[in-house]
Amino acid sequence: xxxxxxxxxxxxxxxxxxxxxxxxxxxxxxxxxxxxxxxxxxxxxxxxxxxxxxxxxxxxxxxxxxxxxxxxxxxxxxxxxxxxxxxxxxxxxxxxxxxxxxxxxxxxxxxxxxxxxxxxxxxxxxxxxxxxxxxxxxxxxxxxxxxxxxxxxxxxxxxxxxxxxxxxxxxxxxxxxxxxxxxxxxxxxxxxxxxxxxxxxxxxxxxxxxxxxxxxxxxxxxxxx
Length: 225
Description:
alpha/beta; 6 strands; globular; 6 helices; single chain; six-stranded parallel β-sheet
């Protein structure tokens, strides 16, 4: 890249797909601003491109406000990519799927807050910076948003389906700003979110293995879509 470095803002950065995405963008020379409930791993703090991490629980609306203020101060100009990766998929104490008939509505509200309303809130908050950078938004949805999944609960699945629909609407609305919006819908990826029971799904996967948190597709979605 020539001139000023491109800037990435990513949520859910401390592990899994989010952490792998940060590494991929860092290898490409981007300046990186992140958020997660946990601090970044010590070895990642030495990454010179990972310039700022904000510890916040985005399932809490008060923390969202704090994050937006801090992140805007860190972006300070054009933003070239917003990756909405943070998500939650609650399970029952017995690890069973939380369906429509079990669990409480407070869990549903928390899931939708993080999986659906946070991407909407951040897209609106950073629309001017994204327009200035002619950037891109990538929403991380899920295959669970397209069909009934044996382990993903109803709140998670419907929140991801809603995020897929929101992505289409955002793509139409943000186009007038010169900002591209796309979604990536991962399948069974080997992250901390998966339960050990996921192994029974391997025969349904053509390669007969779980995916790994490689982030090259996210970078291509932000760069080329």
